[in-house]
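Fold this sequence, please.
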Amino acid sequence: MINVHFLKRFLIISLIAISASNLPSFAAEYPSKPIKMIVPFAPGGGNDAIGRVIAKNLTEQLGQTVIVENKAGAGGRLGVESGVKSDPDGYTILLISNSYAANPSLFKINFDPNKDITPIGLIAKTPLLLAVKKDLPVNSVSELIQYAKANPGKLSYASSGQGGISHLSTELFLKQAGIQMTHIPYKGTAPAITDIVGGVTDVFFSTTGASLPYLQAKKIKVIAVSTNTRSAVEPQIPTVAESGLPGYGVTVWYALVGPKNLPPEILKKLNLALTASVLDKKTLELFKATGDVASPSSPDELKSIIFDEVNLWKKVVSEAQIKVDSAQ
């Protein structure tokens, strides 16, 4: 007589064994169709430019077309949520930057920024340049801090938008320096840098690519870079930390993530392909021209960066009492 319990146990074990044996072959076949890379911003910006370069290189590395899908809206939150909630099969990946880590402190989001993703790897890092209008009588961070303390309420600072990285980076700077400035938010980097050049505002933590042409034309002064190390593009410019505000450091970064539960074999393939894409000779030349630094990483390194920045911007937003329009 057949033992029913033994038979059930045998069937369960057999099914598990069959499923497990299929995993390597599934990963070995990946990718077998085009991959979608969601860029949560409109075409033409910094995120989009980097996304398209990496998509082209990943296409060559993986042997399948990687298609960029711009999904703009709500400060990048629409695209991010779409990527985070996609199927964990490796066919939808998401480009993120600092805003991913800042938005949970600024808006209500419907996912956990640490637990609901699978970090794939970093792409690049770049500093913000601390620019001041040409006729402001300061030439270093220490002089800027002294001037602000001697002239309370006189200085204004531009940002590329309420709650954006330039806004948060400046608020962190002001908090650590113990000074105040009036915030003038703009809709994007271009109008913000234009008004620094025109002398309308006094200070702006600008992206490297936007401010370099004006620095080289001597239409603005750049007194420091935001990162912990000097820029390879303009190594003569000191860091904020070494020129008057020890301990300060902000890095703009770009990275790739997938939804949580991405299979380990697929994650490994994507990380290796991303590393090769970032270190491609043409990509390195492009990054050098824009001031970006190729920064391939392991998934665990990226996981740590995201965790630390979520906590950092949460503190900055809370202490500065930053509020943003939920429709932004």
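Residues 157 and 203 are 4 Å apart (CA to CA). Confidence is low (pLDDT under 50) at residues 6-24.
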